[in-house]
Design brief:
The protein is an alpha/beta fold and 352 residues long. The chain folds into 2 domains: 220 residues, Spore Coat Polysaccharide Biosynthesis Protein SpsA, Chain A (Alpha-Beta Complex), CATH 3.90.550.10; 114 residues, no CATH class. A hairpin with a 2-residue loop joins strand 6 and strand 7. Strands 1, 2, 3, 4, 5, 6, 7, 8 and 9 form a 9-stranded mixed sheet that branches. Helix 1 packs parallel to helix 2, helix 7 runs parallel beside helix 8 and helix 8 runs antiparallel to helix 9.
């Protein structure tokens, strides 16, 4: 067995110097000392590379890995391939973790012989923090029913069929988790390269499906910065394409593993919700200077394509809240102007 208990993989691309230094300090100053820190340079700018070189020179636990810019998925796969620890975890370069994170999570994983250990996250907004977690209390070994709930809500969020210990939150991010390295290797679990959005969900849904021993520790160790300049918030012309790639991967998983109808229904919901997200990223984004009638036509044309038209034809509204049934009705009837108006109001109200 490796003397390294945890390999911490940090993909590094474009990040503010201050955030990156915060991230590195939080990992280097863990109460668990038997770790390695893999910094994967994914084409980072010179000032960030200098910080990596400077920090690596001061801490022998840091290893520098370099690749041509290929995105976070490829960077995480590079880290997985190079890792030597008993467990693997991921930290994004603009986030940070609590000082006792790795020690508490490792002890929890070892005690319960876990292939995957999950814990809570703080979503950090300017001036406030919001708790984000999949369950309401510690579960040393989740049951088959709880695992099914975890998989479903990781894909889509809230459904009325979940057990009492579930929250509305999924657990799609690869951060705030420990993965047993031998388990990932034996099952050839890697990130889907080329998928630029929801790549974590596509990775974790496969991990959860294979794992027999998953536990949840009800502690909040991970600090996830909500940044307006991050890729999730940026305008992208034709941005829906990044969602389509993710949806195709998700559909391939559901069909390839013979999942039941509820998983298919959750996939259809994901199609709908991704289309609505693309309205923020592209169609209704203030930086989109196309005339409104052109944008509405592009929305309608996209809904007529097979990926989305199939979802709208087959989705069962009984699993949706009333507020979420409204955009589905408008999409089904291709009422693009009303959909745009409703969605603006819905988002401003923080609709669920």
């Amino acid at each position: 067995m490796s003397s390294i208990k945890v390999s911490v993989i940090i993909p590094v691309y474009r990040v503010s110097e201050d955030y990156f230094r915060d991230c590195l300090r939080s990992v280097m100053h863990q109460s668990l000392n038997d770790i390695e820190i893999l910094l994967v340079d994914d084409g980072a700018p010179e000032n960030i590379v200098n910080i990596m070189n400077e920090t690596a020179g001061s801490d022998p636990r840091i290893r520098l890995l370099k690749q041509e810019h290929a995105g976070a998925s490829a960077a995480r796969n590079t880290g997985i391939a190079a890792a030597c620890g008993e467990y693997i975890t991921f930290v994004d370069s603009d986030d940070y973790i609590a000082e006792d994170n790795l020690e508490a999570a490792y002890d929890f994983a070892i005690k319960n012989q876990l292939e995957v250990a999950i814990w809570g996250t703080y979503k950090c907004y300017p001036g406030r923090q919001e708790e984000y977690m999949p369950f309401k209390q510690t579960i040393e070994l989740i049951s088959p029913d709880q695992k099914r709930d975890l998989m479903l809500k990781t894909m889509v969020g809230y459904l009325p069929v979940y057990g009492d210990l579930c929250t509305r939150c999924g657990s799609g991010s690869c951060c705030s988790k420990l993965y047993l390295r031998s388990f990932l290797s034996e099952n050839d679990l890697k990130y889907p390269v080329g998928v630029m959005r929801s790549e974590d969900v596509n990775f974790n849904i496969r991990v959860y499906d294979k794992a027999a021993r998953i536990g949840y520790l009800h502690r909040f160790f991970y600090y996830y910065r909500q940044l307006q300049e991050s890729a999730s918030y940026q305008y992208r012309d034709g941005g829906i394409s990044v969602f389509e790639d993710a949806l195709r991967e998700l559909k391939a998983f559901i069909e390839g593993t013979g999942k039941d109808e509820l998983f298919h229904q959750v996939y259809y919901m994901r199609c709908v919700f991704f289309f609505l997200e693309s309205m923020d990223m592209d169609y209704l984004n203030p930086q989109n200077k196309k005339p409104l009638h052109t944008r509405l036509k592009l929305m309608k044309d996209k809904l007529n394509e097979e990926l989305f038209s199939e979802a709208l034809d087959k989705i069962d509204l009984k699993y949706l809240t009333f507020a979420r049934r409204i955009p589905v009705f408008l999409m089904k009837h291709r009422m693009m102007g009303m959909l745009a108006l409703f969605y603006r109001v819905y988002r401003m109200a923080g609709g669920k």
